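Quick note —
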Amino acid sequence: MTRIRKAIFPVAGLGTRFLPATKAMPKEMLPVVDRPLIQHVVDEAYEAGIEHLVFVTGRNKSVIEDHFDRQFELELTLIERGKKAELALLSDALPEAGTVSFTRQQSPLGLGHAVWCAREIVGHEPFALLLPDVLVKHKRGCLAQMIDAAAELDANANIIAVEEVPSDRVHMYGVVGVGPAKGKAFSITKMVEKPKASEAPSNLSITGRYILQPEIFGILEKQAAGAGGEIQLTDAMLALAATQPFYGLKFEGRSYDCGSKIGFLAANVAYGLDRPDLAPEFRGEIERILKGQ
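Predicted structure written out below.
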């Protein structure tokens, strides 16, 4: 497969499930421990070798642009106060000049439309798509695992990250059918959106990480609105699957759906307990809470 250089991050959503917290702050900027949600996902992309970040934004999302830019007043204050560690944190999170692009999705027409809005920036090359409200926790990130798997696949392969979900919850997800294995991946035989448990082709759900070929843009341009009156990415992938192979990768690690309150709270606990500087005291606080103290 051609090297994956660019990644799309759709960040135009309203975050209504987190109101009133998201009234004035994008949900992508909600902190998981001490890093915004979007920073965790961007870190995953960088680990996988992504060179160019493409954010598809909406109104009131300028704070995301500011986060990935310099803040001279803050930096000057930190320098004056000798806060070298804090300066290093800011420096580590700052992309190189010219490696970040922002484009607007003026109307909330769905994930497929958001991807299509990035077409001119991505150009005619395969790209990664990372949903910013999904965190995948593992020593080697999910996207890096996908790119590793891509080395053993066809040049025009599309790859979707999947994970097991309980059978009584498959109706909440997009689910894939499982075909022959190829390296660490497997051929996807079908994709079904929110099937009944009795009709689901497996219990492997689509998890919010994709590697897609650029031909998807031409399909999305002509894609009719689907469920909810939105342009659905799954519909476009089904159309593309008629001419190009799709593979699934059952990645190592655990995902956290930070678009839900429970998933967001669980992610904060998991990431907090993974921090050597926080874990001992944090674990003690959790235990005291559970004991009702």
